Amino acid sequence: MTKPPRKPSKPLLSEADALLRSRPRRRRDPAQPNLPLDPMPDRIEPCLALLKSKPPKGDDWVYEIKWDGYRLSVHVEPTRIRILTRGGHDWTDRFPAIKQAALWLPVGTAILDGEAVVLDQQGRSDFGLLQQSLGGRGGKKSSSDAVFMAFDLLYFDGHDLRNSELDMRRHLLEDLVPAGELGDIRLSEQIEADGDQLLASACELDLEGIIAKQRRAPYRSGRGGEWLKIKCIQSDGFAIVGYEKSKASFGGIGRLLLAARKGDELVYVGGVGTGFNEQSAAELREQMDKLMIGKPAVDTGKKRNAVFVDPKLVAEIEFRAWTHDCKLRHASYKGLRETSDNAAIHEIE
């Protein structure tokens, strides 16, 4: 649980041994007159990282560890705290510890961008543990185990920071959320290092990968290339367009049929038949049975015993490479992404 702010150290004494007391600290009022204030956005579409196979080169890039959780924005407003998912859903009540930590931030108004994660015993983010703490996919439980790793500051005391460079936004964020503190809102620390060496170190520690960010770039919503993600093992979201039936497999799922996005269309990229257990296959089959359609949404070629579904489910798939005809190689199913997380589908360049 979140701990309250530390009490001050020993009081200062004057020559007369009388206590010297400072004026009580008050939160800055964003509505005070005669200041050029920017209206506080109700919601900001997040900046998304573009998947790359190698880190970029050059001094214009800084790095962070890639966290595996739910992307959130924490809104500190004059009369309330709001915690929004990437898709704009209000999940304030599902993260009570993060909400309480936001109330203690020394700021009148702010919007923090970051990731809710649950850490394992080695301090690594574990998406499965996060989903369990929230009651599983589609669950309604609240999580006091999740912490918020803050990596950007978009609005601060009445000022919209999106047009400011990343270095400036980070400077203000680090004043608000100091490095090294272990509360329920923590700083996702930047690392200035050689990208290749940092990626190698992250992979040795069994982390998911790293994020590269252009230090002089403003904050732009969408996947514009100012942020890049480089993973130790390639994984991304793919739309489920059907499955091949098998009596010998969990849930009767022999192989999932998957699609990626190419321009404005979905294209078939092969299937995945590993990574399921009894529980995950049963949950997946239940979801797919609600979405069955007569004709495939994409051309999957001839398939035996295939059942086609409306491509509304996004599966996180781990894979090693691509074939020459753009099919996944050595793919493994990792789980379903939340609808409220507005999960992205892999884009083929």
What does this structure look like?
This protein has helices spanning 96-103, 127-133, 166-176, 195-204, 278-289; strands at residues 50-52, 61-65, 70-76, 81-85, 110-117, 147-156, 159-160, 185-187, 209-214, 227-231, 235-245, 253-262, 265-272, 292-293, 306-309, 314-318, 321-322, 328-329, 332-336. The chain contains 5 helices and 19 strands. It has 349 residues and is α+β, with helices and mostly antiparallel strands. The protein folds into 2 domains: 50-231, 2-Layer Sandwich (D-amino Acid Aminotransferase, Chain A, domain 1); 235-341, Beta Barrel (OB fold (Dihydrolipoamide Acetyltransferase, E2P)). The relative contact order is 0.15. A hairpin with a 2-residue loop joins strand 12 (253-262) and strand 13.
Features:
D-amino Acid Aminotransferase, Chain A, domain 1, seven-stranded antiparallel β-sheet, OB fold (Dihydrolipoamide Acetyltransferase, E2P), alpha+beta, 349 residues, 14% helix, 19 strands, six-stranded mixed β-sheet, 30% strand, 2 domains, globular
Average pLDDT figure: 87
Task: Report the end-to-end length measured between terminal Cα atoms.
Answer: 44 Å
Low-confidence segments, ≥5 residues, pLDDT <50? 5-24
CATH level 1 name of the largest domain: Alpha Beta
Beta-strand residue fraction: 25-35%
Q: Which structural class do the helices and strands define? A: alpha+beta
The CATH topology of the largest domain comes to: D-amino Acid Aminotransferase, Chain A, domain 1
Radius of gyration, in Å, reads 23 Å
Number of contiguous helices: 5
Helix and strand sequence: EEEEHEHEEHEHEEEEEHEEEEEE
Which term fits the overall shape?
globular
Helix content: 10-25%
Quantity of strands, as a count: 19
Largest sheet: 7 strands, antiparallel
How many individual domains?
2
- What is the CATH architecture term of the largest domain? 2-Layer Sandwich
CATH homologous superfamily identity of the largest domain:
DNA ligase/mRNA capping enzyme
Oligomer: single chain
